[in-house]
Specification:
With 325 residues, the protein is α/β, with parallel strands linked by helices. It contains 15 helices and 7 strands.
C-alpha cells in the first residue's frame, strides 16, 4: 500500500469532537502528552495536534501500514508526534517516554480500522474476495486461513460463539471442517460461501450479511483483541497522571462490556455500605465522564455509517490507579 494516498479522505474519525471535548481539560496545557492507542490513519491525532498547539501525541499501532501512512500525514507536526509500532497493551512502556513517565490523556478507538477494511487484500471484509488473512500486523502470527486449517471443531465453535455471538456456530464449524478436508479454505469468498450454506435460509434473510458475525469472531481470535484489551485498560489507567483522562470508543458488545466493567470497578468504593468515612485505600480511583455510553446522533450516522454502533465511555483519574475488585 502506498503511503502517498490521501488519508484524510480514507477515514472520518467517529465522534471526533466529543472525544476531544472530553479529553480537553487534561490535555490543553503546556507539555501535555496524549497517547492515541489506536493510531490508524491518524485522524484523531491530527485533529488533537491542530486543536491543542502545546500537545504532544504518542501514536500506537500494530499495523506497519498504518504507522507509515499516519507518519506521512503527520510529519508537518515534527517532534510533537511520535509513532510506536506495538500493541496497546504495551501502553505503559510507551508512556515511559513522556518526560514524567506519565501521560495526561489516552484515547482508544477500538476494533478494525477503515484502512484495514478498505484494503481488500487484507482479508477483513466479507464483501470482497481476497486472501483470508485478517492480521492487523500482517508481518507476524498465524492468519485466519491458518486458524481455519488447524483449529478443531470444538475450538471453532467456541470462537464463533464467544467472539461472534453466532448461534449457528456448530453448523458453520462442522461445514468448515468438512470443506477443509476437501481443500484448504484460503479466500474470503470461499468462507462466505461456506457460511451461507451452513446457515438456514430463513435466518439468511434477516440481520444483514450472514458472514458478519463469523468474520468478526475470526478477526478477534486472530488478533487476540479481547485479551489485549483486558491487559491494556489497567495499564492505561496506571499510566495516567492524577487528573488525566481515558476515553474509549467501542464498536461491539464484547469490547464495550470489558471497558464498562473496568470503569465501573474503578469508580466504585470498596468500603462497606454506610461507612461514615471511606479510607483512601477503599476510595474510587475514577470519576466517570459519561452517563452510560455516548452514542452518535442520526446526523453523524448518516454522514459516517461506521458510527452507528459506537459506544463512547470516559473517565478521569482522581487518585492513583488501584483496581478495587
Amino acid at each position: 500500500m502506498s503511503v502517498d494516498r490521501d488519508a484524510s479522505r480514507l477515514h472520518v474519525p467517529v465522534l471526533l469532537n466529543e472525544c476531544l471535548d472530553m479529553l480537553a481539560p487534561a490535555i490543553d496545557a503546556p507539555g501535555a502528552v496524549l497517547i492515541d492507542a489506536t493510531l490508524g490513519m491518524g485522524g484523531h491525532t491530527e485533529a488533537a495536534l491542530t486543536r491543542f498547539p502545546q500537545l504532544t501525541v504518542f501514536g500506537i499501532d500494530r499495523d506497519p501500514s498504518a504507522i507509515a501512512l499516519a507518519s506521512k500525514r503527520l510529519e508537518a507536526f515534527g517532534p510533537r508526534f511520535r509513532a510506536f509500532h506495538t500493541t496497546y497493551d504495551k501502553m505503559d512502556e510507551v508512556a515511559a517516554h513522556a518526560p514524567s513517565g506519565m501521560v495526561d490523556g489516552i484515547l482508544m478507538d477500538l476494533g478494525v480500522s477503515s484502512l484495514q477494511l478498505d484494503e481488500a487484500e487484507r482479508g477483513f471484509a466479507y464483501s470482497k474476495d481476497a486472501p483470508l488473512d485478517m492480521r492487523m500486523d500482517a508481518t507476524s502470527g498465524p492468519s485466519a486461513a491458518d486458524l481455519l486449517a488447524t483449529a478443531s471443531e470444538g475450538e471453532l465453535i467456541r470462537i464463533l460463539r464467544t467472539y461472534g455471538e453466532e448461534k449457528f456456530a456448530p453448523r458453520i464449524a462442522r461445514l468448515i471442517i468438512r470443506r477443509r478436508d476437501e481443500a484448504p479454505i484460503t479466500r474470503t469468498g470461499e468462507l462466505v460461501d461456506t457460511i451461507r450454506e451452513a446457515i438456514p435460509a430463513p435466518a439468511r434473510r434477516t440481520g444483514g450479511n450472514p458472514a458478519k458475525r463469523t468474520f468478526q469472531a475470526l478477526r478477534v481470535a486472530v488478533n487476540d483483541e479481547l485479551t489485549i484489551l483486558e491487559r491494556a485498560l489497567p495499564k492505561a489507567l496506571a499510566s495516567l497522571r492524577v487528573g488525566g483522562r481515558l476515553v474509549v470508543e467501542s464498536y461491539q458488545s464484547l469490547e464495550d462490556r470489558i471497558v464498562k466493567d473496568v470503569l465501573r470497578r474503578g469508580s466504585s468504593s470498596a468500603a462497606p455500605p454506610g461507612l461514615p468515612i471511606i479510607p483512601d485505600d477503599m476510595a474510587p480511583s475514577l470519576r466517570l465522564l459519561t452517563k452510560g455510553a455516548g452514542r452518535a446522533d442520526r446526523a453523524e450516522q448518516d454522514h459516517n455509517p461506521r458510527s452507528a454502533s459506537v459506544r463512547l465511555r470516559g473517565a478521569q483519574l482522581i487518585r492513583d490507579w488501584k483496581d478495587l475488585s
